[in-house]
Amino acid sequence: MEYNERGQYVSHVSCSVTPFHLTLIDDIRIAVTYAFNDKIEIIKLSNTHVQTITLVKYCHGISYTDGKLYVMVRTIGIVVLNLSEKILNTMPLDTEHSKDRIYYTNEHNNTIHCLCLSGQEIWEYHNESIIQPLSITVSDNQDVLVVGSTSNNLSIIKQNRKKSRILLDKPGN
C-alpha cells in the first residue's frame, strides 16, 4: 500500500499469493518472495508490471545489492542471481545483506550468521533468549535485528556482538 506524506491512502500493489519477504531494488521496483512458493516477482511500482523468476524450491528471505539478488532457497541455501535471471552463485545456507556482508538465521540451531559476499563465514551468534530466529534485518550502523519465532521476541545484536538485548517481547514471556 502507498500513502502520501499526510498518511492518506494513494494506491496498492496486488500480490499473486501471500508475500513472505521483500527487498527494494531501486526507487521504482521491489522483489518479493511468497510463502511456500518457488517464485520471485520483481514488481515495477508505477505500473505494477511483474517479472517472474522461478527457482527449484520455495524462496524465503531476499535481499538486493550491487545488481544482484540474494535469495534463501529452501534446502539449497543462498542463491545469487542477476536481474536477467542468471544464477551466479549458490551458497549452501534466512538472509539479509548490508554493505559487504550477508546475514542469515539458522532456525534449527538458533543461530545468526554473518558472511562476506563470497560466502565465507565471518561470525556466528547464539543467545538462549532467541529461539527459532526467522526474520532478520541490519541497520545502517551494522546492528542486527532478529525475530525469535518461538521465543516471541525481537532482539538487537550490537555490531560488535558483545551486547544484545530484547527490544520487544510478548507479554507473559
UniProtKB/TrEMBL annotation:
InterPro entries: 6-blade_b-propeller_TolB-like. This is Uncharacterized protein. It comes from Mytilus edulis (Blue mussel).
